[in-house]
Amino acid sequence: MTPTTAVQPYDFEAATIHETGLVLVAQAEALVIEDDVDDAVAKTVLAIVTKGLRAADARRVELKAPALAECTAIDTAFRDATTPFKTAKDLISKKASDYFKVKRDAEDAARREAERLEREAAAARAKAEAEALAAQARGEEPAPTPEPPPAAVAVVVPVAQAVTKTEAGTVGMVKTRGYKIVDEAQIPHEYWLLDTARIARVYKAGGNVRGCEEDITYSPRTH
Questions:
Q1: On the CB side of 194, how many CA atoms lie within 13 Å of its CA?
Q2: Which of 111, 95, 17, 2 is nearest to 55 (CA)?
Q3: Which of 7, 66, 68, 100 sits between 20 and 30 A of 153, alpha carbons compared?
């Protein structure tokens, strides 16, 4: 069985407004403006429509006011109540993020160092082999085989755990690729924000902006 919604007192008002609106729509569809008389009739209907909209919206605001006031009071109470939670969350998140980043940076540095040592060892081996082959080609007594360079030893760094399971829940570290500006002059032009609202204010005040041109439109206003 489909549940039915209880009829509210304002439903009758809304139904009456809707029916009146349908009549106005029919009048608007039938309007043809060919002379000043037709234009006056159209603007009369427009004034009626505009005033009807204003009255309906005012009634809507009036009916919603008590409920909105109660919702606002609830939001305010819980916003104040949860402010310490958000502060604690931000503090711990910042500290955990900083700690995780230090460990990840140490891991990356250790890996790069191990790779550098391995490259140097490989280059030393290649050089020794090349020198031995050159000496052999010249008929010289091959030089004693040099001691092989020590194997690369990476610095042991604790692995930064991306996911930590706790008694209170599982916490994961999410990587976010952000940015910081180091030289504004090098930022490409397409990344600069066009302030269209400011341009509109300039033209509304009678001014002009290079790269733009005046665009006049007309719209009726009911007083």
A1: 9
A2: 17
A3: 100
